[in-house]
Write a structure and sequence with these properties.
The chain is mainly alpha-helical and 367 residues long. It is built from 14 helices and no strands. The radius of gyration is 21 Å and the shape is globular.
Length: 367
């Protein structure tokens, strides 16, 4: 029994993740607002990032992005190794993908919007985090056994925890976890200087835990690529998901808080557990039960996931809201919630139609 090159549920899961990034969030919030505050307030709270400590549904979007990148790697790297002539070609592909992801992340985050040297930020985007984590995870897959990879996953989490807990900054004691006073932000400021983006999000030290998140996806990919029965795969994903959620939540509550901004180790475990549960859910319906038609909506997005992310964040998020705000201006003046819903709905549908056009013509843009 050969390992398949793709698992349909992973494309659906990627599309589910991208849905919230390419206008789906605004669409759901706009819809909820039509039904009044009793529905709108709790939904909006879950579709808004927490300010610092804690976790909402919307905080899962970026970890899920990294998780899916890892989950497809056992399939994509095996296919690449099977089709490549030599080991050097595999290396070149890995480094090419890393560089391309970094450059795309730089462009998406507005790297060319401002040519003033002191205002350029060189590392502040999800794609750049994915690129770095992908590179380290891919090299681990090539050179380390699965046992060593699992050990590396644990060491990355413990190393990050140890640095944060026991290394002091110049003006704060070790273990400080305030938005602007923590070792992760200090490392970014130290290395980037004026090019640090100025927010509470960290990147350099967090590459340790970014990689751990991708590795959690890699282990899921190994599990899905195995020759075991489908029900065993589903049960394994659900069991491990619940286990990691519990461990991450416990660690976060009693010792090392769940903070997405600096990608703490407890956040990795907690979010990876949720990703496993979602992965198990979609695998159960799409691959095991073969219920695919209801999920085509997400699969259309997922098959061009990186393209959708880049184009929406570079052009779509600027063009569609302005265009439809102008078109529906009279309605917005009459009823702001109805107007915002129409703007969000038309913006999303317009972009989804582009992805549907590519899907029907079997154009899948991958890197």
């Amino acid at each position: 029994m050969e390992t398949p090159d793709r698992v349909d549920s992973l494309d659906v899961l990627r599309g589910f993740d991208m849905f919230w990034i390419i206008g789906g969030t605004e669409l759901i919030i706009g819809t909820a607002n039509l039904f009044g505050p009793d529905l709108a307030v709790p939904i909006t709270d879950q579709l808004t990032h927490v300010e610092w400590i804690g976790f909402t549904f919307y905080d899962l979007i970026m970890p899920l992005f990294l998780f899916i990148v890892g989950a497809v790697m056992p399939f994509s790297l095996k296919k690449l190794q099977r089709e490549s002539r030599d080991f050097k070609e595999v290396h070149n592909h890995i480094f090419y993908r890393f560089i391309l992801l970094y450059i795309l992340g730089f462009l998406v985050s507005g790297g060319l919007d401002n040519f003033e040297w002191t205002k350029i930020s060189f590392f502040n985007n999800t794609l750049q985090a994915i690129g770095c984590a992908y590179l380290m995870a891919a090299l681990a897959m090539l050179y380390c056994s699965k046992i060593i990879q699992g050990t590396l996953f644990i060491l990355l989490l413990l190393t990050y925890w140890g640095i944060v807990q026991f290394v002091p900054g110049p003006d704060f004691p070790a273990g400080t976890l305030e938005p602007q006073r923590n070792i992760a932000i200090f490392v970014d400021r130290l290395l980037f200087g004026v090019h640090q983006q100025g927010s509470t999000y960290s990147w350099i030290l967090s590459c340790l835990t970014f990689t751990a998140t991708v590795l959690s996806g890699v282990f899921s990919g190994y599990w899905l690529a195995g020759k075991r029965q489908g029900w065993v795969k589903v049960c394994g994903l659900f069991f491990m998901g619940i286990f990691l959620v519990f461990i991450g939540w416990s660690w976060g509550k009693h010792s090392f808080p769940i903070i997405k901004h600096i990608w703490t180790s407890s956040m990795v475990l907690f979010s990876s557990g949720l990703c496993l549960l979602l992965c198990g859910f979609f695998y159960l319906f799409v691959d095991l039960w073969g219920i695919k038609k209801p999920f085509v909506f997400f699969r259309i997005i997922g098959l061009n996931g990186i393209f959708a992310y880049v184009i929406w964040n570079t052009f779509g998020v600027r063009i569609f809201p302005r265009l439809y705000s102008f078109i529906f201006h009279p309605i917005i003046q009459w009823n702001v919630f109805t107007g915002e819903f129409l703007v969000a709905c038309c913006g999303f549908v317009s972009f989804w139609a582009v992805l549907f056009f590519l899907y029907k013509r079997k154009v899948f843009i991958r890197i």
